TrEMBL record, chains A, B:
One annotated Gene Ontology cellular component of this protein: proteasome core complex
GO biological process, one term: proteolysis involved in protein catabolic process
Pfam family, one: Proteasome
InterPro entries linked to this entry: Ntn_hydrolases_N, Proteasome_sua/b, UCP009120_prtse
Biological classification of the source: Bacteria, Pseudomonadati, Pseudomonadota, Alphaproteobacteria, Hyphomicrobiales
Keywords for this protein: Hydrolase, Protease, Proteasome
Annotated signal peptide: none
Name of the protein this chain belongs to: Putative proteasome-type protease
Domain of life: Bacteria
Stored Gene3D superfamilies: Glutamine Phosphoribosylpyrophosphate, subunit 1, domain 1
Record GO terms (molecular function): peptidase activity
């Protein structure tokens, strides 16, 4: 399993990915699923992946090294794309190339062509954008009404985002809410695991100003998790019992 | 969709079920999924259902009206079972009878034989028990380590239970936590909807002392939901930003 969450708020992008992968439940490994691209002052791009690791790693390699555009004959790399929309199209194109190469063989092996990406960032002179790219290479864009997207094991960590993330949420709060969403998921599904990778791209910074790995035992993350647990306990203790509840 | 949760704590059982059913996303209805059986002083049993409504309704009707035990030739009803374990076996037997009747026809129609039950309660002189019964009629029993079981859309509402429900949790707290788990699910999946049905069976009461429907606009549920939202907001605001966070 995997859980990745991207938040696109007024002041920028926060992207967090776990690192646990498994081939069956008895073959668990740690792989980086958050990939960063860009040149300071020109562009800053983060991509998080879920699904079949062989597909997602190949797609990342393809958009990094370059794909030949069949219409122009030119090699296109994610670092050269003039906008985030074009970057999303390139990732989508790479996904379809992989599907052509692998789809049938995977199907013969009884495996689905299962992959998903979050792509977020900004190119100089353009708007900041975030996209979720599906296994057919199609994609949707994140909007202001629900300024976050999730891939992988998304359900456990969604309620906290649904309640609290808004367009006006600050970047520091977006980091905290993303980590709380991760924490809920880590607790409820062992298929999602530490360490976490986190990247932050403030709006118009054109740079990934925070790129950090949160290891097992990280004091900030442990403190956040403990504070959250006790606040939740206090919160539900503080709610009065139902007037129709049990006596005593 | 459906979400049902059962909590089995030291002081008794709380079972909560939503009432939304849908055949496709454009055919949404309200059906009761929480069914109560028993005679005060003799036994108190609650059953919640998820999955294909035609299967679950038939299983409930069968265990209520009686099934012929092929070994003894006798008709067995859930109200006559000498223990909760035997009641779970009867529900499992009814599920397999339905599978024999319907499984092939459903498969021909491209539909899975999809059904699940939570069964909880107590028979006089016996231990209180809770079971989750699967689509093959097999079942597991709820234990003290994680004193709750869920069927249907269980993920959104699991983190709050994972963090807070313990064997020592009081019945009133179990009601609150069950309703908070429901509230998280209602917010994140429109396929789960009000009204809710709730039943409470205190240990050794041999009676369903609370059987209540929580309608849209129920003042206690609305208050619980609002308090929870603001407590969550306050809780995450109260967590300090990461020391490596964004300036300002």
């Amino acid at each position: 399993m995997t859980y990745c969450v991207g938040l696109l708020v007024q002041s920028g992008v926060v992207m967090i990915a776990d690192t646990r992968t498994n081939a069956g439940i008895d073959n668990v490994s740690t792989f980086r699923k958050l990939h960063l691209f860009g040149t300071k002052g020109e562009r800053a791009i983060a991509i998080a992946c879920a699904g079949n690791l062989s597909i997602s790693q190949s797609v990342i390699a393809m958009v990094s090294e370059g794909l030949v555009n069949p219409e122009t004959g030119e090699t296109e790399r994610i670092e050269d794309m003039p906008s985030m929309f074009r970057a999303a199209q390139l990732v989508g194109f790479a996904v379809r190339q992989m599907r052509k190469q692998l789809g049938e063989a995977l199907e013969d092996a009884g495996l689905p062509f299962d992959v998903a990406f979050l792509l977020a960032g900004q190119v100089a002179g353009r708007e900041m954008r975030m996209y979720m790219i599906y296994a057919a290479g199609n994609f949707i864009e994140c909007g202001r009404d629900s300024p976050f997207l999730q891939i992988g094991e998304h359900k456990y960590g969604k309620p906290i985002l649904d309640r609290s993330v808004q367009w006006e949420t600050t970047l520091n709060d977006a980091i905290k809410l993303g980590l709380l969403s991760m924490d809920s998921t880590l607790r409820s599904n062992l298929g999602v695991g530490l360490p976490l990778d986190i990247a932050v791209i403030p709006r118009d910074a054109l740079a990934i100003t925070i790129s950090r790995r949160i290891e097992n035992g990280d004091p900030y993350f442990r403190n956040l998790s403990e504070r959250w647990s006790s606040a939740l306990r206090a919160a539900h203790m503080d709610i009065p019992p139902p007037p129709w509840g049990v006596d005593g």
